[in-house]
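Problem statement: downstream parser choked on a complex file, so we are re-checking the raw output for the nicotinamide-adenine-dinucleotide run. The parser issue turned out to be on our end (a line-ending mismatch), but while we're here, posting the original submission so the record is complete.
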Amino acid sequence: MPLNNPVETVSIALAERSYPILVGGGLLARAQTYHDVPAAGAALIVTNTTVEPLYAAPLRTALQACFRRVHLVVLPDGEQHKNWQTLNLIFDALLQHRCDRRTVLFALGGGVVGDMTGFAAASFMRGVPFVQVPTTLLAQVDSSVGGKTAINHPLGKNMIGAFYQPAKVVCDLQTLTTLPAREVSAGLAEVIKYGPIADMAFLDWTESHMGALRACEPKAMAHAVKRSCEIKAHVVGQDERESGLRAILNFGHTFGHAIEAGMGYGRWLHGEAVGCGMVMAARLSLALGLIDAPFVTRLVRLVEAAGLPVVGPQLPPNDAPGDGAADVSSNADRYLRLMRVDKKAQDGDIKFVLIDGPGRAVVRGAPDALVRQVIDDCCR
Ligand code: NAD
Ligand code: GLY
C-alpha cells in the first residue's frame, strides 16, 4: 500500500545544532527534500547490500540535482558488521574519492547504517555534515534522531562513538512498505517504549492501533513516526548528552543490550531485545514496588501483540575468557556481567531505567539479588 502522506516537520531544538525531521511519503526521491543541505562539495551515500538495490538509485538521482559529485559506498548488512572494519570502508571511500571538508554523508538504511555513518561523519576530517535517511521503522522513530552515533565492541554494545547531530532527518514512510514483518515488529518496540516513560495517551493509541501498525497502514505509521520523533526531540532538546533525563530513552535497553551482546550481535534484533528488555525492566519495577502488577501485564500483552518476544534467552557461556578456563557462571551471572559494562553503569554498579508510575521513568540501581530473581523468572 503506498504511503504518500503529506509532509510534516518535527523540529529538534538544540541551538545552533537544531534541525528538521521530515516525515512523509515519497520524500527520499525528491530533489526539493535536500534544497537546504550545503552542496558545495561531494555527497557520499552510505548504505548496505540490502537497501542499495531498493533505494540508492532514486536517492542518487535526487542528489545529482544538487551536488556535482555523488558517490556510493555499500556496506555489508547486519549488526555483526557494526564494527571498526566496516566503519573503515566509509573512510576508504571518502579518501579514494578525494572527499574534502565540504562533503556531506547520507545515511541510507536502518539504525546500523545510521549509527556508523554518523560516527564516520563525526570523525572524518574532524567533522563533516551528514543527513539521516532512515529506511526502517526503528530508525525513523528513534535511531536517526538525537545524534547518538557508535559502533559495537565485542564486550559491549555501542561502546565506541560520539554525540554528533545530523543536519536533517528524512523519514520517507514509503520505504517502510518493503520492510519484512520481523523488522516492523522490531521497530514497534521503540514505539511502545515512549508510552510508559513519557506519554500514556500515546500508549493507549499504540494499543488500539497495533493491528494497523503491524499492517503498515499509512495513517497509523505516519502518526507513530511523528509522535515518536516529537517525544524524542523533546527529551533530547533538554538533555542532548545524556547527563540525566535522556537516559529514560533507554527503557528496556540495559537488559536488551545484554541479550544482544550475550547472544552474539545479530541473533536477536535490537528491537526484539528491547521489547523483552522492557518486560524485564517492568518486572524489576514491580519487584521494587514502583508499579503494580496490572501495569506489567498490560505492557507484556502489548509487547506480545507487537510480535516481540517476552521471554528472555539463556545466554550461552563465554568459553573464551583470557585464562582459557570453561565458563561455569549461571545465566543471571552472564546478564549481570554484561550489564556492568552498560554506559549508564558507574564503577560497575548497574543503573536501570524503571517505571515508577504510568508515563514516568526513573534511573536507579537495584539489589543484585532482586535482579537475579527477575532474570531467573523472565528467562527460559
Ligand atoms: P538495521 O539497521 O540492521 O536494519 C534492519 C534490517 O532491515 C537490515 O537487514 C536492513 O538492511 C534492512 N532494511 C533497512 N531498510 C529496509 C527497507 N526499507 N526494506 C527492507 N529492508 C530494509 O536495524 P535497525 O533496527 O534499523 O537499527 C538497529 C540499530 O540501531 C542497532 O545497532 C541499535 O544499536 C541502533 N540504535 C541506535 C539508536 C541511536 O539513538 N543512535 C537508537 C536505537 C537503536
Ligand atoms: N535511543 C536512546 C537515545 O537516543 O538516547
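For whoever reads this later: The domain at 188-378 is CATH 1.20.1090.10 (Dehydroquinate synthase-like, alpha domain).
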